[in-house]
Write a structure and sequence with these properties.
single chain; mainly alpha; Cytochrome Bc1 Complex, Chain D, domain 2; 2 domains; globular; binds heme C
Length: 236
Amino acid sequence: MRGGLAAIVIWGALTGAAPAEEEGRRIGDPVRGAEVFGQCAACHEVGPGARHRVGPHLNGIFGRKAARFDDFRYSDGIRRAGRDGLTWDLEHLDAYLTNPKTLVSGTRMNFRGLKDRRDRDDVLAYLRQFSDNPSDIPEAAPTARKVEVELPPEVLAIMGDPDYGEYLSSECTTCHQIDGDAEGIPAIIGWPEEDFVLAMHAYRRKIRPHPVMQMMAGRLSDEEIAALAAYFGALE
Ligand code: HEC
Ligand code: HEC
């Protein structure tokens, strides 16, 4: 929770210092964001003439559909998210940069994430300068609601009861086959419990785009998610 608290304090200080309207329009500081982008630059280019490197170029990223380029070899996970309708607005960029695999399991973006909210705000303010007419992209408006994707440590610390998880799992195995992917439905066994918990909460908070999974996850309590993570995690 420490990070969350710090973010609230900083937000309070900012809104006290500037007119509310101006504050609402500002994502962060693009000049500082250019420095933060140094952490991305090993893999991504942005700006005039930017090309795909290890990662796709990031021109026009605001409002761009996830995994949009045919000439870049994306992971299956992010392609599926794109098919489900994931579009890079502020909320989803923020979630992806906080912890890429929360939003996209199996993403090829091998990056631990920017845990500091200010770093994310600043780098996104920097990237937004390379999107066409950013103010014409309503869903990318900087005032769009951002959802905190980092789970409080006490939620991550819940020890799931695998027997209870097994009991609950019959609701899941109508679609998810225990022995692997089937008909486009991904396998969910043998995952690290934390990844499983993060993915389920991302559906519950509707950060991940799939409506059926949003509904399934929306019915589960924190304890039930932990129990399912313990049960499916132990299966091989
Ligand atoms: C180690 C290399 C690496 C680093 C560092 C990295 N990325 Fe990525 N990034 C990738 C790869 C590879 C993909 C493609 C992901 C996939 O296929 O699942 C990607 C995908 C993305 C996408 C989605 C693009 C699309 O077309 O859907 C965004 C947005 C993104 N990265 C932003 C960033 C930002 C901002 C940073 C720095 C804070 C960063 N990345 C750091 C390798 C990296
Ligand atoms: C009606 C069919 C259906 C049911 C029932 C269902 N799921 Fe899913 N699930 C899916 C589909 C389809 C996806 C892929 C969604 C996507 O593209 O994000 C998915 C994705 C997932 C993922 C993410 C997989 C990945 O690779 O990113 C997890 C974790 C998951 N489901 C867990 C569960 C659990 C736990 C239950 C039971 C409480 C459950 N599902 C019930 C269809 C279902």
